[in-house]
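Morning!

This is the sequence you dropped in the shared folder:
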Amino acid sequence: MTEITPIRDNTPYQRKPDWLRVKAPVSKEFAETKKLMRRLGLNTVCEEAACPNIGECWQKKHATVMILGDTCTRACAFCNIKTGMPGKVDVLEPVHVAEACGEMGLEHIVITSVDRDDLDDGGAHQFVRVIEELRSRSPGTTIEILTPDFRHKAGAIERVAEARPDVFNHNLETVPRLYPTIRPGARYYHSLKLLETVKRVDPSIFTKSGVMVGLGEERLEVSQVMDDMRSADIDFLTIGQYLQPTPRHAKVDRFVTPDDFANFEQLARAKGFLMVSASPLTRSSYHAGDDFLRLRAAREERLQRQSQNQTTNQ
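The structure's back. Tokens below.
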């Protein structure tokens, strides 16, 4: 299996600005969450991707469960998850995810996965089983999924969408120009088409996508990605700072300032997204539960305005 090609050997880490520094996780709740995940044999993207928000999220007992193992068949230049040949799919994993959800008392859960290009369906069936198990055991919990692109897996996207998660997230990650070096195993327009397909299958599902900044993209390119997302009817956009996991990964081109993130958020809202989260520490599932409530309220408000406008114009 192809491994990440070193991009900048022996490159020293850049000193992070003050707005990116977070406290080390030491809370009792953090330890309890970690113990629960190990007891049930579950992986989390919080750990595998070295998320800077892990201390805050786990203190609140919010964790993003990563199904289908801890080994990815892709080798993206930004990602800290290990690459290689994954093991067999754990048939008990959906039950264990549901048990963790119940024990943590989650009102909203986020499920993601590694890429599984080795599987005929890319892991779509496991996503469906997890959703079904959660619906059965925790019917009051809303479900958000963050999927791989299911490239070359005919019918996989439709199959997962038909399981009706509340939020279907798939990240574009970066601008099209940087795909060959940052996300070489993926295709920009395929990822856009994925989210467009979800809306076609079930327009009631909220769609969500995110990009990292600080990889060398231009502001105009980010604006174009926003336009492309809106053309695909994506509801929720997240924008966060790229952080270099190791010297072997893509180098940080620049640290984007909080003011720049505020400008990105203002631009995205003007383009019509229902929800926008843009900050240095924003990640796909950061504050996902609270954001879902705001997302649902924003849709209800928009529908109410549209209804009022139609009545006025009659």
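Headline: The chain has one domain: 23-309.

More detail when I'm at my desk.
O.
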